[in-house]
Amino acid sequence: MQVIKYMFQPHGDDRGQLIALEELKDIPFHIKRVYYLYDTAKGVVRGKHAHRNLEQILVCIHGSCKVRLDNGEEKKVVLLEKPYEGLYVAGNMWREMFDFSEDAVLMVMASQLYDEEDYIRDYDRFLELAAKARR
Ligand code: T46
After folding, report:
1. Is there a catalytic annotation at residue 11?
2. Choice among 11, 30, 49, 51 that is catalytic
3. What pLDDT is attached to residue 93?
4. Looking at the domain assignment, is residue 67 inside a domain?
5. What is the pLDDT of residue 16?
6. pTM of the model
7. What CATH number does the domain containing 104 carry?
8. What DSSP string describes 69-116?
């Protein structure tokens, strides 16, 4: 499984750092939605679903968290702890976010508006669809 991480270019000077993200330039899709997770309770695992079509970039802009990616055949854990790195997650990937630091802010840029119909929340169904897509 290939993990795709984007390294964003900081515009740093003696005042500090600034990162600007533009659609189709720094982010490989039109950004239709941005949301972020914060104040995540200790020990919580979020996500536990895949999507049908959604593409997303996850950036832990403060603190740290881990993301488990599962394509139905292989699993990988990715640590996000830098505000200048973005993890690309395609729809067909089961994802779980866990090990949030107390101060973690996980920002997500998404290619589609929120649509509950796009979620695959049943793991066995996800495995079926992933196997079908590989055939
Ligand atoms: C994903 C991971 C990384 C909305 O109303 N609008 C939104 O855009 C989102 C994302 C959520 N919601 C509502 C739906 C639920 O009532 O917020 C509540 C929590 O959402 P959810 O349980 O889906 O959150 P996570 O952290 O499990 O998953 C989210 C995204 O839903 C998902 O697409 O890939 O973050």
Report:
1. no
2. 49
3. 97
4. yes
5. 98
6. 0.97
7. 2.60.120.10
8. EE-SS-EEEEEE--TTEEEEE-TTSEEEEE---TT-EEEEEESS---G
24 domain-assigned: no
Residue 97: its pLDDT value, please?
98
Q: What are phi and psi of 66, to 5 degrees?
A: -115, 150
Ligand 1 pocket test target in 45, 54, 108, 120 with most atoms within 8 Å of CB:
108
How far is 41 from 62, CA to CA, in rounded Å? Answer: 15
Ligand 1: nearest atom to the Cα of 106 = 3
Low-confidence ranges of the chain (pLDDT < 70): none
* 90 within a domain of the structure (yes/no): yes
Q: Which domain holds residue 99?
A: 4-8+32-134
> How far, in Å, from the CA of 113 to the mean position of ligand 1?
11
Amino acid 108: pLDDT: 98
pLDDT confidence of residue 79 = 98
